[in-house]
Structures are given as C-alpha cells and as structure tokens.
Amino acid sequence: NHKVSASNNVSLREFGCEQNLLSRPDGSASFVQGDTSVMAGVYGPAEVKVSKEIYDRATLEVLLQPKVGPAGVREQSQEQCVRETCEAALLLSLHPRSSLTLILQVLHDDGSLLSCCLNAACMALMDAGLSMSCLFCGVTCAIGADGDIIADPTAAQEKESRALMTFAIDSTERRVMMSSTKGSFSVQELQECVAVSQKASEKVFQFYRDSVRRRYSKNL
Amino acid sequence: MKETPLSNCERDFLLRAIEEKKRLDGRQTYDYRKLKITFGTDYGCCFVDLGQTRVMAQVSCELVAPKENRPTEGILFFNIELSPMASPSFEQGRQSELSVKLNRQLERCLRNSKCIDTESLCVVSGEKVWQVRVDVHTLNNDGNLMDAASVAAITALCHFRRPDVAIQGEEVTVFSPEERDPIPLSVYHMPISVSFAFFQQGTFLLVDPCEREERVMDGLLMIAMNKHREICSIQSSGGIMLLKDQVMRCSKIASVKVSEITELISQALLNDKAARKAGGKCGFAESMPQDRITALKMDQTDVEMTNVSQTGSGVILQGDEAPPPTVPSPVVPVPGVGQVGQGLQSWGLEEEEEDDDDEEEESSGDDQVEEVTQIKLSEKDKKEAVVEISDSEEEEVEVDKLN
C-alpha cells in the first residue's frame, strides 16, 4: 500500500488562452499550458453527409492533428476521449441532422497534451457559441517514482512517472466526465489524483471565467 | 463540409471593383498583406501570418538509409497538410487537387532549386544520411496559401538545428542537444514564391490574392525567386494566355517583393537568435499578444493539497460500504463444458444460490477432475440444479453436477 505524501503543494504551469484568432472557423481558441500549446477550431452547426447524419441530434467529429507525421492510432484514441467529453457536455439535440467538427492542432507538446486539448476544445466551443450543459476542463496528474503526485506534468516529468492520468472534470458538480490512464497505481492513489484534479480544475474554471469576462468587458 | 457557394452578385462586385483598380481590403494592385513571422519553442518551428492566412511549419530530422542512386546525399521531404481547420472544404485524408498542386509547387520551389546543401547531410556514405522532413500545417485559409507556405518552409529550414554527429572510424555518435549544441543546416539561398492572380482573361492582375479574389480569378501565376534575382520556378495555371511582357513585368515585381520578404525573414531570425541568447523564454505564452481582450495569461499557480488524502480515502470508504459484488466463479458441470453464472432463469423456478470456491478457468477434458474443487452448497437449498445457458428461453435443462 503506497502512502502518498499530501504535504507537498502541486503547482499548475503558466496558462494562456486566446479566443477567436482564426477567421474561417466558427469558433477558435488557442490554449497554452507552460510550453504545451494546442489550437482548436470548430465548424458548426453545418451540413452533414447523409451517411453520418443522426436524426435527432448533431454529429460531432473530432480531428487531432499531430505536429510531425500523419495521424495514427494514438491520435485516434485521444480524439475518442475528447469526443466523448464533448458529447456529454454539448446539447446536441438542439441541432438534429447537423454536423459539428472540432479540429485540434498540436502546436507543441511538452506534457499534459490531452488536458490541453480538452481545455482548448472547451474554449473553442464557447467561442463558437454552441450551447453546453456544463463546461469541462482537463487535468493531467502523474505519479512519480517516489509516489509524489505531480499535476500538469512536463514531458520530462511524464517520462519519469510511474503512472499518468488525465481527467475531464465538469464545471457544475466537479465530477469526472472522462478518464484516461496509463501505468499502474493503487485505488488510493487514483482517488487522490481525482481529488487533486478536482481542486486544480477550480483554477482552470476561474481562468475560463476571467478570460470570458475580459472579453466582454467594456474596459481592459 | 461543403464550401458556401459564392453568390453572383458578390462575384460581379469583386470583378467590377478590380476593373476599377480597387480591392476589398483597400490594398493597391501590387501590395502584399501584412506578413508576420514568429517562432516556437523548439528549433525548426515557425508561424507565418499573411494577413488572415496562417500556416505553421515544423522541421524534423532522422537518420535513414540513403536513396540508392544518391548514396552521398541527404533526403528532403516536404508535406503541406491542408487541415480541415483552415477551410470547411478541406477534408481530412483526401488528397484533393489543391493539395497535390501545393505540394508539387513547394517541392519544385525548394528541392529542385537546390537551396539546401544535401551533401552536408550525409553521415556515412551509402548507409546513413539525415532525412529532413518539413511539415507545413495550414491553420487558416484566407487566400494565397502557397506564398505563406513557402515563406514558412524556408524560414523553418533556416531556423532548424540538427543534432551534432561525430564519426570515429566505424563508430558514429549522435549527440543530444544537451550534450553538444545542434548545428544549423547549410542553406545556399532562400527561394520565396510570389503569386499573381489574373482576371478578365489576363487583363488585370493582383498580387497576393485573398480568398474572395482567388474564387473569382481566371488563372494564377506563381514565380519562385531568391533575392539574387534568380528564378527558381515558374508555374502558370488556369489556362490563361499571358504575353511575354506580362510575364517579364511580373518577374520584376516579384524580385522587389522577394527582396522585401527576405529582409523580413532575416530580421525575424536575428531577433529570435538574440532572444534565445539572452536566455529569455521563447515560447507561445510569450508570443501571445497581451493587449487584446480575447487573450489572457495566468502565471504559475499552486493547488492546495491539504485535504487530498482524506478526500481520497473518504471516497474509497464510501465505496467499501457497499458489499463487493460477487462474481460467480466458473463451474465445470460436464467435462468440456465451462459455465459462469446462472444464466436465464425460467419462470416459476426458484432461484438457486451457490457458493463456489475459486476454480481454474481452463480445464481440458483430462484435467478437469483434479481441477474441479469441492463445491459448497448454501444451507438454504437442498435441491441442487444447474441451469445450462441455452438459446431458447423456455427450455429448461437440468444437468447433474459432478463433484
């Protein structure tokens, strides 16, 4: 049984976000966590191919483009994680027989890529004006070799970690919407990481709120 | 997704305006849009904004075996990715006509012009050479992707640093960036492409067409040149017939533009070099404009972890209050038949409960006698019955269990 030390303070890296930076997509956002940077673009609601249409709700498609090389299976599984989170948050039944396309472009990967993708996706969906039942954010936790929990790890920290977990947390009740884990860990460690993610998500949601408030404010 | 079709009145308006030497955004005929070049955190990553058109180029390298007919030369690989983010009409994975055209033009512009010294990329002749790969991702298409892509590609190649290599006899050592400083590629010259759009069968021309102008144009002339006034590639598409003096005029305009753009690229590279030398952080967080209301930055924050272990344990305790669900262990009623659970119960038959000890899951016909351990029956039931799972719901089969 691993005793995880709870005395150390975990820290989140520097955050940055810019919304509405691309002219063609209906909604776009770029999210930066330390050196990890992802750009998201949303098109929709738009026409959908008959083969993909769903009669009572919108069809959401998520595409993740890596920086080097063609998209492979790893990108497809990350797309799946993002898509499930978005489908849970978006009110898809407001747009039946329509398509929503979310494209994520990795600008730089320095760890916590999936959570950065989730954050960029949420900000882009907000920028596109799509109705959602809740906002979501992504938080990555890594368990180091000595049992310490590291939140928002860099690529170097991820490499040395024993386990890596990404959670998507919703904004209304701070519940876990999606989890993607790698490595081995105990049940106690899992629950502690969930608790850390829930606490960290508060900072991220506050950042969302500040971004949007700044955008709609009358003075800078 | 289908591109929104261009309405006739919009098309007529654009053409009439061009005839009167007016452009939608107020530019003159030979004016370029504002060109902005920024770099990313690692070497070889470059962003180019040409007005609203945005592209990103990333250069990477790896050691591979050389081509058979060129054993002493490195390999250059170019790829322009038309991302669906840039335009709703770009589809993922589909090799559209535009994608083929852009890729081919970029290859001709950069590879055939021999702007990179490929001989210097050779490590062991005939066995190991560097393959330099340039990926250009289009982020937003507001017209003239070709020019933006060529600027991004050549700037990224100038910015890129490859790992240092030492050869001692037979041994080849590749040093990581921490061990030895990476070295830049040897770039002879910088070919830049300039695009001209023609309207009304070649009567009017515009430099650097935006997306609307591209949709109403008749043909496109692309000239790739370097600052030494050497033409690296000319491509004319759209089937317009151009006169010789029109092409000559375009090449003169192109040389002026290319020297301006080359100056801009050199300045950007110098600025970046100075910033890295000064040790400041050069990344996306820094290059994000802070004076816009659509952008926000937050510094490193701490997350309180005081109650984390209590919360974690609390959740687990809550989970433990519910009795752990019993998973029935496999049972072997007859040699060669394994059974887990009770299956569907027929109507009216009382539910039988069985407690099984842990049993082996695999049992071949011969071993099953040893593997089937003693089965304890619950005290409630005197009758023992095993219901076989079968397709038919009505059928009730009782099989005597072997002890």
Automatic annotation (TrEMBL), chain A:
Domain of life: Eukaryota
Example GO BP: poly(A)-dependent snoRNA 3'-end processing
Subcellular location(s) per record: Cytoplasm; Nucleus, Nucleolus
Gene3D superfamilies on file: GHMP Kinase, N-terminal domain
Xref: SUPFAM superfamilies: Ribonuclease PH domain 2-like, Ribosomal protein S5 domain 2-like
GO MF annotations in UniProt: DNA binding; RNA binding
Family: Belongs to the RNase PH family.
Name under which the protein is recorded: Exosome complex component RRP46
UniProtKB/TrEMBL annotation, chain B:
GO molecular function: mRNA 3'-UTR AU-rich region binding
SUPFAM superfamilies reported in the protein's UniProt record: Ribonuclease PH domain 2-like, Ribosomal protein S5 domain 2-like
GO cellular component: cytoplasmic exosome (RNase complex); nuclear exosome (RNase complex); nucleolus
Annotated family: Belongs to the RNase PH family.
Biased composition (Basic and acidic residues): 377-386
Positions with biased composition (Acidic residues): 349-370, 390-403
Keywords attached to this entry: Cytoplasm, Exosome, Nucleus, RNA-binding, rRNA processing
Subcellular location(s) of the protein: Cytoplasm; Nucleus, Nucleolus
Gene, per the UniProt record: EXOSC9
BP-aspect Gene Ontology terms: exonucleolytic trimming to generate mature 3'-end of 5.8S rRNA from tricistronic rRNA transcript (SSU-rRNA, 5.8S rRNA, LSU-rRNA); nuclear mRNA surveillance; nuclear polyadenylation-dependent rRNA catabolic process; rRNA catabolic process; TRAMP-dependent tRNA surveillance pathway; U1 snRNA 3'-end processing; U4 snRNA 3'-end processing; U5 snRNA 3'-end processing
Domain Exoribonuclease phosphorolytic: from-to ranges: 32-163, 189-255
Stored InterPro entries: ExoRNase_PH_dom1, ExoRNase_PH_dom2, ExoRNase_PH_dom2_sf, Exosome_comp_Rrp42_subfam, PNPase/RNase_PH_dom_sf, Ribosomal_Su5_D2-typ_SF, Rrp45
Protein name: Exosome complex component RRP45
Pfam families named in the record: RNase_PH, RNase_PH_C
Residue ranges crossing the lipid bilayer per the database entry: none
Superkingdom, taxonomy of origin: Eukaryota
Residue segments, region Disordered: 336-403
Organism field: Nothobranchius furzeri
CDD domains per record: RNase_PH_RRP45
